[in-house]
Amino acid sequence: MGLMDLFRGRESAAPAANLRSEPPVTASGASNVQSATQWSNGYVTAGASRAGVAVSENSALSIPATLQALRILTGVFAMTPLHAYTKGERGRASADHLPSAKLFRESPNSHQTPFSFMELAMADLMLSGDFYAYVSRGNGFSPSALTRLLPGSVLPVQHFDRADGITVFYDATLPDGTRERFPSRDILHVAGFSRDGINGLNPIRYARDALGSTIATNQHTADFWGRGGKPSTVLQTSGKISPEDKKAIRYDWQSLYSGLSGESVAVLDQDLKAEFLTHNMKDNQMLETRQFQVVDLARLWGVPPHLIFELSRATFSNIEQQSLEFVIYHLGPHYTRFAQAITKAFAPHGHYFEHLTDALTRGDLKSRMEAYWQQRQMGMVNGDELRRRENLSEIPDGAGQEYWRPSNMAIAGQRPAEQETDNVEE
């Protein structure tokens, strides 16, 4: 038993009167819970789709539209700063000095930047439905490092009590190979769209047929061009050919005339005639099929089609509005999901985490300056606050600290002060 074990035991032995004490980690009835993917080294088992191809994480990432969609989602999500705030009488105030806030703004662990950690966390959420991280703690029981756990190596376990409801534990395999049951305070869990409130749904598993049809289409296209774009061939004759001769003729034809080279000349005997089976790509709507699959994948991953370069119907007349919709409707739920999970796990009472999306919703320079000017005239912000939004330094000697109020405005319900005027004789 180490020093931290003694500390944890002392903390859990005497909980405050107003706090709920967790049941023991070895909850009865839950010790034999197992999962088929629990110890699978983080890989979701591949399954066959109706198109006849196996769909797994690797095969899904081989689709260009999927790879680009995930790059967009994970990259934009990771570049959005996560701040800690405290609630006060005059509104919220920054609380980025908290140890947990520094994890997400400076260094989540010894080998990852905040961007790479959040990008990986978002990728796990999108591809497996859940993100898990082990919470290492230092002095004062404050979090000191976050270690990502492989998808499939963690299994949530429920313990139900009529008085307190459901308490969740986690059967997890750590990177050092040890397996243990951990309380929720030791595991940061962010679940995606869920049907039970605990486990996120795996998109690859539930959209297997949609991904499988796209993979099959890509394979068919690659195989066609792998044959040099030549259609299928039928060799026919009026005479009878034994099965052994058929195999020999087929082997000779494929070895001599298949592949990318189209310069070889076929010389046929035994009254053989070659007939080529034509493939009309236009009638088969190959291009339309591939375009539809890109849009279908955009629906699956929650990305506007124009962001994954499906521009067949793009006009760009309202690109600013589309970018705003991307932040609100596509990334907004993910921001809230992560921020509330981190708040629940780390924030002290009266504190919370929130993503700052101002940089993503900025308009063009002209629109931004007009909005700044209106805010300045209304007295909402001062000059230094506006300069910080543009990554500029403050005005020296406090000249940018003043707030403006138009002189022709007064407080509602009050009569304007009477001004003394001088009578000027004409």
From TrEMBL:
Domain of life: Bacteria
Sequence segments annotated as region (Disordered): 13-33
InterPro entries in the record: Phage/GTA_portal (IPR006944), Portal_HK97 (IPR006427)
Protein's UniProt name: HK97 family phage portal protein
Native organism: Sagittula marina
